[in-house]
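PT: before anyone asks, these are the final sequences, not the draft ones from last week. 621 residues across everything. Please model them as a single complex and drop the result in this thread when it's through.
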Amino acid sequence: MRQSVTSARPSRFAQGLQVASRALVALIGGYLAAALYTAAMARWLPIARVEAVMTGMLSSFAIYACVAIMAFAVATATRAWVWLAIVCVPPAIALYVSMHGAGA
Amino acid sequence: MKEGLRQSMAWLHTWLGLLFGWLLLAVFVTGTTAYFQDEITRWMQPEITGERHLDASAEGALAYMKAHAQGAESWTIQLPGQRSVAAMGYWKEKGETFRQWRDHAFMVDGQGRKVDARDTTGGWLLYRLHFDLHYVPVLWGRWAVGLAAMFMLVAIVSGVITHKKIFADFFTMRPGKGQRSWLDAHNLTAVLALPFHFMITYTGLVTLMSQYMPWGIPAAYERPADYYRDHLGTDAPPKRSGEAAPMASLTDMIRQAREHWHGAEPGFIAIALPGDANSVVKITQETGAAMGTRGETLAFDAATGVMRRPPPVKGHASQTESVMVGLHAGRFAPLALRWLYFFSGIVGSAMVATGLVLWTAKRRQQLPDPSRPYIGFRLVEKLNIATISGLPFGIAVYFIANRLLPTGMAARVAWEANWLFIGWGALMLYVFLRPPRRAWIESLAVAGAAFLAVPLVDAATTDRGLLRSLAAGDLVFVSFDLCMLATAGLFAYAAWKIHRRPVAPVRVARRTKEAVA
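LR: through. Structure below.
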């Protein structure tokens, strides 16, 4: 980042915050998303229990990697958080419904 | 936007690489040696000779435990794989934890005789370093390595996005041009073995996924033990009856297992409550017998020798997991493929190392005063040298310590491992005390000298030196020594290359750059 600092750009401190914010999405958010999908798959996939758990675990690292790439690919750190939320909502709802029932 | 994406991915790749590079290099180097861990262990126990013979060593180990470990909770026999000679037996007394197994460990050769081999962890130490690290609790080590592997995966993806001409990178190498050459070398090693890098990183994460990503288990199971029962087919341990019963023939149980597996060999025998009427013998298929690494386990009633109901056939996901772990560890690989794994591992190590060097090569040209770089630059440069020559040096010291430490000494196993880190630490300290250019030349030369010393010390302290091994046609010992000599040559060549280079290549590079502009 050293060379990209020019007078037209935001301060180094602001830039550092942006990077830290994206890193948080990648590191923590990526793990959270992967864990949610893994758990949701374990409950919803219409196959044997042990197979569903296994399928979720096997695919979790791909999900984590995609979220981490997304965190640094989108234009701003705020958008990274928005995308993280969008990615996490479906498995969170699926998990909630399967644990507490759709009618509850 | 497109250019912006490539730039942000390049930035991500650079800083992820720097953050995890040193740890990844250690993981790659030790993981590469692990493809030959059985051979390394054989070299590190020169007392063990002869041929492998499964049934005889199993019966020999059993006889030894019958004589020395009556009333133990369990007897375990680790049979030699296809590339080993000796079996290892150990038992667990009531109340002992699993970690104390080494206190009751012994080796049995192919004729069923117990051998007094020097106590060593052999190639297994390097294999465990690969994912457990050392001196830290195993769980922490695994999390650190897992995090590095996870972001290696991200670095691979971002590295691919960064590249415009990924195909052209196959054929591009411009040597002797400073930063440009390091970039070419990094691209070449990365792209050439890209499928390997991707496979090895993802499957590496899969090997420990129930630690890293366990959340499906509590979501689907009330008790985690039920998941492991479904996954591995483990049933509850037997209860002691208090009634003694002699054990049926182990050789016959091995025969039944072979028959059930259509000829595949057993690799692991665990006997729970030996001597008791409720004793159970479990025989697990050798991990090298198939690509999937989770060998099936068959259970027998020890007193009658009758096989219990075999476990159900694995589902698709479980088979996928088993094959992914198998692909990572390569235990199924025959010799030629094993060497390919080994060289791919070296290419991976070179990819990480060139990437680390590239970080400094790129920034060196932008330094305001190249003779006085800022502290972060100096730290990265020194850590690069300390890891690239320091870790291999430590491994050479580990091999030498195996030959020089007295066989009867207390805590010999721990001291062998300590010497690896003493060697590495000492070279690291030295590197930090020397100017960078001298540090490169001298540390590479020292590492080269240490690898040269390994076969020499071996020849001086055992009767299995290179010349004798050649005469005896002992391929394992010959190959090991030749690998040491080749590594020594490689390090010496690198030291000589840097020594021959003009003293201030930085200025030269700058001037040509200006001339071009």
